[in-house]
Amino acid sequence: MTRRRNHRVSIINLNTGRGARATSHPYPTRTPVLALDFGAVSVLVTTSAGDLVTAADVDFARQLAREADQFARSVERSFHGLPNGQGVAA
User: Measured on CA atoms in the order 41, 32, 16, 59, is the torsion positive or negative?
Assistant: First the structure.
């Protein structure tokens, strides 16, 4: 990840677990929406405008995909699939 240029004002921590899911919603007449659901909290990731896609939107989508893939690989590596289904940190 690249270094942030501005200071963080706040951090929201959304934990995965039962009920957490990510869903892509491609629409034929508008730009796609990525929904991240964490129980009672939903985060919608959209492009900068509902009717067009910019080069910055494409760059962000590619970065998001790379980082999500890295996150998934790290989680898989950390999970050892114990019989109790809990796993342990590597």
Answer: negative
